[in-house]
Amino acid sequence: MQQQAVARRGRRGPLFVLLAALLLVLVTLVALPGREGDPRCGPREVASWSAENRLTGSFARYGDDASRLDDWTGGDGTHSVRLPDGRLLWLFSDTFLGAVNQPPNPAGQPHPWRSSDAPFVRNSAVVTDRSGALDRTLTAPLFPDTAAGEWRWPVAARVEESGGRQVVRVLLWTRAQGTGAYVYGVPNATEVATLSLPDLRLEGITQVLDQRQVRDPARRVLYGTTAVDHQGWTYVFGADDGQRATHRAYVARVPAGRLGDVRAWRYWDGKRWGTRAAPVLGDDRRRGVGTAFTVVRDAGTYVLFTTAAGARGLTEITSYWACSPTGPWHGPAKAFTPPLPRDGATPSRATAYNPQAHPELSGGGRLVLSYDVNWLDAAPAAAQAQLSRNVSLYRPRFVSLRLGPPAAR
């Protein structure tokens, strides 16, 4: 009997070891819900939101001010970065300069308007004073066209240390003239520009990822729509440029402070960080992103905001969440419809796109999000005419969000 009991205990030994190991794995999975292992990570979505009329109004007043004729009157691609001296640098893609005329406009509408020959540049930058008031427009375009006739759109930016001094690194999208589905430009490359401080002078531009050899423009990926810093890394997100309702999102990472070092860039390939890239979100149908989206880190969770797929007229913003920048990404969550400027046209074709978070303006449990406004028209010339007829159609607008766990529905 004693020998049988010893034998049974001997048989149970490996089983107990296996069960203990499985229990340890389960405990680890509960404690580490994401690859980064932050126990705070969990579902997050928009709990409430409200219009930020003060910020929206500040850009309207700055754009309408006729005291200078070489400054910003409207633009999209809205990004911002806090400078070491407290100023805020605002970066824009396609931009109108010149004068804004007060109503009535030539179409008989009660909107401020600009003439059809108003100066138009591919990028611009507006800097605030230390109090946060919009102060001046830097000489535009800040980032010149390439020798090949391509233009540059600035996206995410960071202040970094370089050679014992601080500089601003600005990620750029290089695009070239296209036709048909790419009438607004063919994606060509991701670059990083360096601006000196405090004078914000362009010191140089470095190419990070050349996509010109990818024959199908729909498969080209540009990085920099948004960036998140965490645990010594800068995670840089991007998207492809396929002509679909949704796009695929990608992510790269760089050691903090080395955005301008091409050799430091690594791309997530679905299993590891390397030289190849695979999408982290997007199924070519209902799940995916716009070509421009934003990501923030909130209470241990990564939250991604993008234009909702399938929304009528590109008017809704939705979100996804993940415990790691590489995913898996969960969602989309319930979308919300931010306010658009009123317009006398019927039906209105005003659109909301490119949501961007501004952590330097956020705090107290609220997140400030900008979104760009444009006019949806198959003919670029017709859309531009509408933007001149009503200048409020091509300026950033702002909302404040509060995030929380999903509400019971």
Briefly note the CATH topology name.
Tachylectin-2, Chain A
Tell me what portion of residues adopts beta-strand conformation: 35-45%
Number of domains: 1
Question: If you average the pLDDT, what whole number results?
Answer: 88
Helix content: 10-25%
What is the second-level CATH architecture?
Answer: 5 Propeller
Please give the order of strands in the largest beta sheet.
13-14-15-16-17
Reported for the largest beta sheet, the result is: 5 strands, antiparallel
- Overall SS class: mainly beta
Low-confidence stretches: 1-12, 14-34
Computed CA radius of gyration, to the nearest angstrom = 24 Å
CATH class term: Mainly Beta
| Helix/strand order | HEHEEEEEEEEEEEEEEEEEEEEEHE
Tally of contiguous helical segments:
3
Put the structure in a nutshell.
The chain has 3 helices and 23 strands. It is mainly beta.
Which structural traits does this protein have?
409 residues, disordered N terminus, Tachylectin-2, Chain A, mainly beta, 4-stranded antiparallel β-sheet, 5-stranded antiparallel β-sheet, 3 helices
Question: Can you give a write-up of this model?
Answer:
By secondary structure, the protein is mainly β. It has a single domain, classed as Tachylectin-2, Chain A. 13% of the residues lie in helices and 36% in strands. The protein has helices spanning 2-31, 53-64, 380-389, and strands spanning 45-51, 74-75, 79-82, 88-92, 95-96, 120-121, 124-128, 134-137, 151-162, 165-176, 186-195, 202-210, 221-230, 233-240, 249-255, 266-268, 273-274, 294-298, 301-307, 317-322, 350-357, 367-375, 397-404. The strands form 6 sheets. Strands 13-14-15-16-17 form a 5-stranded antiparallel sheet, with no helix packed on it. It has a 4-stranded antiparallel sheet with strand order 1-23-22-21. Strand 16 (266-268) and strand 17 form a beta hairpin. The radius of gyration is 24 Å and the shape is globular. The relative contact order is 0.15.
